[in-house]
Specification:
mainly beta, 2 domains, 3 helices
């Protein structure tokens, strides 16, 4: 698992790529640094220092910053987005189908912010995982009664055999994509730290790799 290093006050954040319904002419939004109630935002190469509540000339409004959680909340075309390190939030294409664009972190892993059953979750893209997998810690935070509603099983991990529970997730959202009745698995314990975005979700999408960029599209 990749190790991320942060300074006390300055956190390098994500590159935000927008689809056709994005912010006018803006194509790239890079949140360069994060402070208390202030952020440095680069929009298509133009650098802006925004305080909470201020809006860039391109229409990017900074709502709030959180240096403890290493995230910033912005508003784009009236839609709130949460930006985190290594995560790209996408807009929608002209056909109204959802899409998301991701870039790898320093360890080469792709992460995405999304939700399971309406609760915010941080995903790590894992094409080697058959289903969406999460720890029992994450499942309890979401409110999933996996023991009652799941089918028990066992899985082999580097730490040994662990109990698992297979079940159907009501809905899973990543960027502009939401899928329903997605197969998932809960692993007893606190690993994996981030939920694994496996093939029960990814297999229903079209995926494209262009250099380091990964794009996911609704079919």
């Amino acid at each position: 698992m990749a190790i991320r290093l942060f300074t006390v006050k300055v956190i390098m954040i994500a590159v935000l790529m927008l689809g056709a319904s994005g912010t006018g002419a803006a194509e790239k939004i890079f949140l360069q640094a994060l402070f208390k109630d202030k952020a440095i935002v680069v929009v298509d190469g133009a650098r802006h220092v925004l305080k909470s509540g201020e809006t860039s000339p391109e229409g990017i409004k900074l709502l709030a910053t959180d240096t403890q959680e290493e995230k910033a909340e912005v508003e784009i075309d009236g839609k709130r987005e949460v930006l985190r390190l290594g995560v790209v939030v996408a807009g929608f294409d002209q056909k109204g189908k959802g899409s998301v664009v991701l870039y790898p972190d320093h360890g080469g892993h792709f992460f995405a912010d999304g939700s399971i059953n309406g609760t915010s979750v941080r995903f790590m893209v894992d094409t080697g995982a058959t289903v969406i997998a999460m720890s029992s810690v994450i499942a309890k935070r979401i409110g999933i009664d996996y023991i009652r509603n799941g089918s028990p099983g066992m899985a082999s991990t580097p730490a040994g055999n662990v109990h698992t529970y297979n079940l159907s997730l009501n809905n899973v959202q990543v960027g502009g994509i939401t899928l329903y009745n997605v197969q998932g698995s809960v692993i007893e314990g606190n690993h994996p730290r981030d939920a694994l975005l496996g093939m029960s979700f990814l297999g229903q999408l079209d995926m494209k790799r262009d250099g380091e960029k990964m794009e996911l599209f609704e079919r």
